[in-house]
Amino acid sequence: MVSVKVSAAKSTPLTRNLPTFITFDKSPEEHTVRDLKKAITAKNPKLHPSRQKLTLKGDSKTLPDNATLKDAGVVDGSEVTVKDLGPQIGWKTVFLIEYAGPLIIHPLFYHFPQIFFGGPVQHSVLQKYVYAAVMLHFLKRELETLFVHRFSHGTMPFRNVFKNSAHYHILSGLLLAWSVYSPTYAANSPYIRGTIRENPTFLWACLAVWLFAELSNLHTHITLRNLRPVGSTKRAIPHGYGFSLVSCPNYFFETLSWTVIAVMTGSYAAWIFWAAGTYQMAVWAIKKHKNYKKEFGKDYPANRKAMFPFIL
């Protein structure tokens, strides 16, 4: 038997019934932190487990859901503090919202130029190809979210959905669409006529690299999916296509895909989105690379870089 005191890190309407005591009939080895969260919810129904951040009294380290109470340092007589993280939203829902933005914004700018540019735009071959590439990219991301990705975290604070979506809705949505579907890139524009941007060989070569990057990105996502059994947060060392050189080839191929769009168009908007996205993915890749090495130690391939082969 183990009895745990649960107190509030900060008083909120949902934690007004705290402190309280949670008692389990079995030993700390036979219960997990997730069990403790569920027991807290049983006494405070509106305080869903996804809203709870549990820490040991006097410590700031979050107790992982899958850890047993013993491994988390929770023993009979321990005191645990719970922080209400506020309203939550599922990561799958967040991803769907993020990628839906460009799927709505780009057709509006492409098909209704008179609203945004004051008149019709005779679309160049470049604009047609970019439109198709952008739409296919984000459609792929939506389908991956629904059928491929398995998320290690179930939810995130609802307020963060606006910050996360801004990256896609503003940079790859509004800004990119405003730039590449404008008269500057139209078929009769001097920026296009007589330049490499209407050269079929250049355009098809770019599309070939783009397609390679997109399919490679999908392949690595499927590899990562197959590492994690349904309903678990289990981690394993990824191997196979792309992973022999870097820990996060999915980020590398994503960057390559958007490099193609930036090179094809030369658009300031495409380069801004490329820079912002590449920086963020590099930060994530470095963190994941360090976590892999910390978790798997000598078993993790020593010659791998984080994101860019032989460089970073």
TrEMBL record:
Q: Which Gene3D superfamilies match?
A: 1.20.120.1630, Phosphatidylinositol 3-kinase Catalytic Subunit, Chain A, domain 1 (3.10.20.90)
According to the UniProt entry, its GO molecular function terms are: very-long-chain enoyl-CoA reductase activity
- Name the EC number(s): 1.3.1.93
Q: Which reaction does it catalyse?
A: a very-long-chain 2,3-saturated fatty acyl-CoA + NADP(+) = a very-long-chain (2E)-enoyl-CoA + NADPH + H(+)
The UniProt entry's GO biological process terms, in alphabetical order, are: very long-chain fatty acid biosynthetic process
| Predominant cellular place of this UniProt entry's protein | endoplasmic reticulum
Domain of life of the organism in this record?
Eukaryota
Could you tell me where this protein is found in the cell? Endoplasmic reticulum membrane
Biological or metabolic pathway of the protein: Lipid metabolism; fatty acid biosynthesis
Any Gene Ontology CC annotation: endoplasmic reticulum membrane
Q: How does it sit in the membrane?
A: Multi-pass membrane protein
Tell whether Nucleus is among the UniProt keywords.
no
Keywords annotated in UniProt: Endoplasmic reticulum, Fatty acid biosynthesis, Fatty acid metabolism, Lipid biosynthesis, Lipid metabolism, Membrane, NADP, Oxidoreductase, Transmembrane, Transmembrane helix
Q: List, for all copies, the residue spans of the domain called Ubiquitin-like.
A: 30-82
Function recorded in the entry:
Catalyzes the last of the four reactions of the long-chain fatty acids elongation cycle. This endoplasmic reticulum-bound enzymatic process, allows the addition of 2 carbons to the chain of long- and very long-chain fatty acids/VLCFAs per cycle. This enzyme reduces the trans-2,3-enoyl-CoA fatty acid intermediate to an acyl-CoA that can be further elongated by entering a new cycle of elongation. Thereby, it participates in the production of VLCFAs of different chain lengths that are involved in multiple biological processes as precursors of membrane lipids and lipid mediators.
Q: Which family does it belong to?
A: Belongs to the steroid 5-alpha reductase family.
Q: What is this protein called?
A: very-long-chain enoyl-CoA reductase
Native species: Pycnoporus cinnabarinus (Cinnabar-red polypore)
